[in-house]
Amino acid sequence: MTTDARRRGPYAKTAERRHQILDAALQVFAAHGYRAGSMREVARTADMSLSNLMHHFRTKEDLLLALLRRRDDDSPGQRTGTHDLVADILSQARWNQTKPDLIALYAVLSAESVTDGHPGRDYFIERFVTVRRGFEEEFGKLRDAGRLRPGVDPHMVAGCITALWDGIQLQWLLQPDQINVVAYLEAFLDLVTLPPDTAFIADPGC
C-alpha cells in the first residue's frame, strides 16, 4: 500500500462514518424532531455506540447543524439550462418530490425552530431571508423583461411563493396521493407571470 493510500484510509473511513451518522440523524429528527430525537436513538439507528457517535459529533447541536449543511449540499438548485425562473422552480419542485425524507426533515425542523433556544433558529432565519431576496431579484428580472403581469410586485411575490412552496410541501407530506406540489406552483406562477411571447412592456409615457 502506498503512503497516499494509507493516509486516505482513515479519512475515508471517518467520512463514511459521518455519512452513516447523518443518515441516521435524518431519520430520527424527521420522525421525532430535534427536541424529542436523542443522540442515543441516532446511535442506535446508525448501529454504533453512543461514545462512537460522540467521537464524530460532540453534541446534538453539532449534529443538527452538520445535518442542515448537508441538506443544503444535497438540495442544489435544479437548473433546466433555459435560464427561465419558472422552469427552474418547477424542476426543483419535481426533484424535491423524489426526496420525501429530506423534505420532511426540513418541514419538521423549520417549524420547530420557532421554539425558544432552538439551535436551528438562526439557520432558518438566514435561509428564509436569502430565499426571499433571491426570488425578489429573479422576479425583478422578469418584470424588467415584461414577464410579470401588470401590478405584480417582485418583493411581494417573492414572499408569496416562498410561503406557498413550504406550505404545499407540508400538505404533500401529509397527503402525497392528493397533493401535486408542481401543479400548485405552476398555477400560482401562471397568475403572476406571462409567457415570453406575450411579455408586457409598459408604455414609458404612461
Automatic annotation (TrEMBL):
<feature type="domain" description="HTH tetR-type">
    <location>
        <begin position="15"/>
        <end position="75"/>
    </location>
</feature>
<protein>
    <submittedName>
        <fullName>Putative TetR family transcriptional regulator</fullName>
    </submittedName>
</protein>
<keyword id="KW-0804">Transcription</keyword>
<dbReference type="InterPro" id="IPR039538">
    <property type="entry name" value="BetI_C"/>
</dbReference>
<keyword id="KW-0805">Transcription regulation</keyword>
<dbReference type="InterPro" id="IPR009057">
    <property type="entry name" value="Homeodomain-like_sf"/>
</dbReference>
<dbReference type="Pfam" id="PF00440">
    <property type="entry name" value="TetR_N"/>
</dbReference>
<dbReference type="InterPro" id="IPR001647">
    <property type="entry name" value="HTH_TetR"/>
</dbReference>
<dbReference type="GO" id="GO:0000976">
    <property type="term" value="F:transcription cis-regulatory region binding"/>
</dbReference>
<dbReference type="GO" id="GO:0003700">
    <property type="term" value="F:DNA-binding transcription factor activity"/>
</dbReference>
<dbReference type="Pfam" id="PF13977">
    <property type="entry name" value="TetR_C_6"/>
</dbReference>
<keyword id="KW-0678">Repressor</keyword>
<feature type="DNA-binding region" description="H-T-H motif">
    <location>
        <begin position="38"/>
        <end position="57"/>
    </location>
</feature>
<dbReference type="InterPro" id="IPR036271">
    <property type="entry name" value="Tet_transcr_reg_TetR-rel_C_sf"/>
</dbReference>
<dbReference type="InterPro" id="IPR050109">
    <property type="entry name" value="HTH-type_TetR-like_transc_reg"/>
</dbReference>
<keyword id="KW-0238">DNA-binding</keyword>
